[in-house]
Amino acid sequence: MILDQLVQASQQRVQAVPVRDRAKRIQQARKMTTPVLSFEAMLAQPGLQIIGEVKRASPSKGLIAAEFDYLQIAQDYVAAGIDAISVLTEPRYFKGQLSYLQTIAQTVSVPTLRKDFIVDASQIASARIAGASAVLLIVAILTPVQLQTFITLAHELNLSALVEVHTTAEIKQAVAAGARIIGINNRNLKDFSVDFATSCQLRQAVPAECYVVAESGIQTATQVQQLAAADFDGMLVGETLMRAPDKGQAVMQLRAGVRG
Ligand SMILES: O=P(O)(O)OC[C@@H](O)[C@@H](O)c1c[nH]c2ccccc12
Predict the structure, then answer these.
(1) Measuring from atom 10 of ligand 1, which residue has the nearest CA?
(2) Residues with CB under 6 A from ligand 1
(3) What are the boundaries of each domain within the chain?
(4) What are phi and psi of 39, to 5 degrees?
(5) At how many degrees (to 10) do helices 2-15 and 121-130 cross?
(6) In angstroms, what is the span from residue 20 Cα to ligand 1's centroid?
(7) How far is residue 44's CA from residue 51's CA, in Å, rounded to a whole number?
(8) Looking at domain 2-31+38-259, which of 3.30.70.60, 3.40.50.10420, 3.20.20.70, 3.90.180.10 is its CATH number?
(9) Complex-level ipTM beyond the 0.95 threshold
(10) What would the pLDDT profile of 105-147 be if each residue is shown by its tens digit?
(11) The model's pTM
């Protein structure tokens, strides 16, 4: 199963770094005083915020962008008025790099999200050191103790945690672990099938005190309208924007849905 492979690859990368060095990285991140652009404050703005994703490839689609000038893409997103940027940092299946996030975070003035398969606290520390505002934590790949520990660490480091769920049961687990931002993924990570209806179906199971983001498979202004009507705070859009030759126009088309 592919999700297991992704998790295993992530664990191997983590374990390649000696425990002592990982612990030092966490200490280094704890001492950081550089300000963080708040991902949560971005979601607190009125309306539906757009999080654009910088993604070169994916396990289900293979290479998405033949030409991949990640910084240019990020700058085009920002010029188009995007509210935040998600950067895939998983190297093997998504052809990402943490350095992409670092360069983007140093250059743009919107919050950035580290999109990876986080299985160790040191990856959260690395995100903070690279200048990210938030990390993705996937409920399906973590134990309850890990989830709670990672959410707490993210908050201690002044990072937001976007806690990804795919079922009502996972929403309950996320909230119990202290999640403040829930990401409902329309993509089933077990078989990679996408069903846009998932986000709207699960929306009502998210408690009112949490922010909520719809993820994956968002393509049309009509879908955006549905998300806005269902009172989502944000939406995460990857492929639709990555494949668009004109990012400005693509973002405008999505926003047309927000305005109705
Ligand atoms: O390209 P899409 O269908 O717009 O999806 C973006 C984002 O939701 C997707 O990349 C994603 C959601 N959860 C993830 C977890 C890991 C890697 C990637 C993802």
Answers:
(1) 238
(2) 53, 55, 115, 164, 185, 187, 215-218, 236-240
(3) 2-31+38-259
(4) -70, -40
(5) 70
(6) 32
(7) 13
(8) 3.20.20.70
(9) yes
(10) 999 999 999 999 999 999 999 999 999 999 999 999 999 999 9
(11) 0.97
